[in-house]
Amino acid sequence: MLVSGGLDSTVTLAICAAGGYEPYALSFDYGQRHQVELEAARRVADSLGARAHRVAEIDLRVFGGSALTADIDVPQHRTDAEIRHNIPITYVPARNTIFLSFALAWAEVLGARDIFIGVNAIDYSGYPDCRPEFLRAFEQLARVATKAGVEGAGMTIHAPLLQLSKAEIIRRGHELGVDFSLTHSCYTPTADGAACGVCDSCQLRLQGFREAGLTDPIHYAAA
């Protein structure tokens, strides 16, 4: 189970656990500017009963190309139309491909046949690696690239939030008793860890809570 500490991966972890799976949580220290997300990932994994939680260190700053891994300004105060138009500079090149490859390796060691990821193809920022065609292609890759796959034990990529709106994701998490105060979504948190309230991620999150009719329990510097 890929766990970033964000809202979507937290709800996905809750769905995984509620579905009778025994979750092993995997997070990444990949050189992202918002290191506070790893603290959130640890809180989330612990609160939702992950059997184990590991943090893999891979420094994607060696490539850069993203506002999350290079000295590039994170977009702020964008309109909904602007957020959903074109792939934003917060896209980290090939990130989900890299993350799923690590998850695939650990799953094969564990003898697991299921990988969960909290991607969403509706209320998202246009990232190409959050689409169903990407996930199906990765499943095919897993079948031909691993010992388990060659021996006939396929790998299933689960993305239970794929076709849900942000409001629906939040409602689902609320139903499962997710403590959203443990999560972190902001691209540019303040020094004390508060969410900025004006980056794309914050705005999508706040809009989701408004549409869900619920109050976001985290602290915002501006909203």
Provide structural commentary:
The chain is mainly α and 223 residues long. Helices cover 38% and strands 8% of the residues. The strands form two sheets. Strands 1-2 form a two-stranded parallel ribbon. Strands 3-4 form a two-stranded parallel ribbon. Strand 1 (24-29), helix 2 (36-47) and strand 2 (52-57) form a beta-alpha-beta unit. The two termini are 31 Å apart.
Brief account:
With 223 residues, this protein is mainly alpha-helical. It has helices spanning 7-18, 36-47, 80-83, 95-110, 132-145, 147-150, 166-175, 200-212; strands spanning 24-29, 52-57, 114-116, 156-158. It has a two-stranded parallel sheet.
